[in-house]
Amino acid sequence: MSTSIRFLGTAGFEIIGPRFRALIDPFLTGHGFAPVTPETIEKPDIILVTHAAYDHLGDTAAIARRTGAPVVCGGDVRHLLMDEGIPASQIQATIWGVLVEVAGIVIRPVECHHWSMSVRKNGQALTGTPLAFILETEPGVRVYHYGDSAYFDMRFIGELYKPTVALLGCSQPYELEEGAVQAGKELSGEMNPDEAARVAEMLGVQVAVACHYFTHNRDTAEFLKQVPVYDKSGKRQTIAPLPGDTFVIDAKKGLVQ
Question: What is the pLDDT of residues 35-58, one digit of tens each?
Fold first, then answer.
C-alpha cells in the first residue's frame, strides 16, 4: 500500500490513500498556479479546512457544492459555508482535541497557533479557532497539516499521535502581496525555515514537506538545508514540491518518489 500527496499551492494538498481521497485547504482560483480547478478536481471523500483565510478556505464551497463532499472545519468556517449554500448536514464543525469521524474517515484536530477571522455576507464579523489536522491514510502513514501555525512547542503532538509526514509552512505566498492593501510588507510566513525544521524534529516525522508558497524561493532552499541540521535520527527525508507535484509515501520506506 502507499499514499500519494499532490501539492496544490500555498497550503493546499490532495491526499490519496488506499481508502479515501482528502482535500486540505483547496485554494485553486485567482492566482494561476494551481494544477486543477474547482470544476476539474476529482471528487474528494472529505475536505478539511484549517481556517477562514481566503488562501486556505479557498474554493471549498464550490467543490463541496459540486461534489457533495463533507467538510470538517471550525465553527466560524461552518457559518461561512452555510452562507454559500452548503447545508449544515454536510459540515462537521470541530475544535482541538475533538476527534471526529466523517464518511468513515477519522480526523484529529490539534492545537494551532494562528487566527481565523472573516466577515459574513450580512456584515457580521466572525472569529474562530484555527485548526491543524492529523489523518491516518493507512497503517503507518499519519499526515500532519500545520494549519498555518506559528512556532510553539509541538513535542506533545509527536509523542501522543506520532505523525509520520508533516506538511509544514516555511515561507509565504509572496505573489499574493502584490494586490494587498497594507501599511508594510510581510517578511516571513507564520514559521520561517529554521522554525519549520525544528518542528519536524519535535514531531519526529519520517518526511518533512515544505509548503505555504507557490514558487521556490530563499525560504524553500533554506528549509531543505535546515531540516538535516536538527534531525537526530539521521534519516528524515524532505521535499519542497511545486504546485502540481505528486509524491508517494510508503509506510515502511517513507518518501519513495
Answer: 999 999 999 999 999 999 999 999
